[in-house]
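Students often ask what a 'structure token' actually looks like in practice. Rather than answer in the abstract, let us consider N-alpha-acetyltransferase 40, a protein of 269 residues. Its sequence is given first.
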Amino acid sequence: MATVKIRSANAASSSTLAPDLPRLSILKDGTSYSISVVRSENLSCDAKDVIYTLFNSNMSHLQQTSSFPYTEQSKREELFDVDARYILLLSSQGPDQDPKKVDKLDPVDNLKTTTDTNTNIKAKGKGKGKGKGKETINEIDFSPKDLLGFCGFRFDTEETLTTRDAEVAYCYEVQLAPSSRGQGLGKILLNTLEDIGTKRELDKVMLTCLKNNQSALSFYTKQGYTPDEIDPTRMAEEEDWTDDEDEDGNEEDEDTRDYVILSKSLKST
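Now compare that with the structural description of the same chain:
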């Protein structure tokens, strides 16, 4: 059941969650891009197609033979759930861009806010009415060449080994376009999500990763993610196997699940 803190996070605007976004920066290779946080409902149909296509291209060969197979319909329902949020990395190269207004930063450092927010995002007004008190929703539209990467997440509660559920930012996806890998963008996405979770005073960031996705497991480990207390493999390893012997005195096979549940605490130690 959602707690007051989780309900508050789900109701918060993107500017409340990340007051320093959107911002514009440039990588060492000269690629300029914007980073922003948006609700799934603010994405245009074309933008949703771009996100799904990148996910499917990166993950289909791994996930369809796993315990998490999907159809396009089921995955779209998950990706674009009403509570889903996205941290977007979008190319900001354009004829109107002034490179002098963009900070050139090491991507492993948190990016600074700049005064120039010109990007290739096309915001289309989708007003719910006119006049005082009426909300105007900007529909975010971008093409495949604009999307460098994204992190899809939600605010939720998760079980623990105690009676208290954890309040978490659950990371559903971290996906990068092949051409933008190796430049620290994955770290930027996770750092941004962790910063959002910390500001909302959540317990941790959680995610599920397939064991056969070795590159992703290595990446998350380097970022400080470890098996969560409810990770089934970790729980199996911590059991007393001497109590689980069969009639022949042989130990039962260890947990064979093909995924791990990882987390990183957001609480100061």
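One point worth highlighting: The first strand starts at residue 23 and ends at 26. Ask yourself how you might have guessed this from the sequence alone, and why that guess would often be unreliable.
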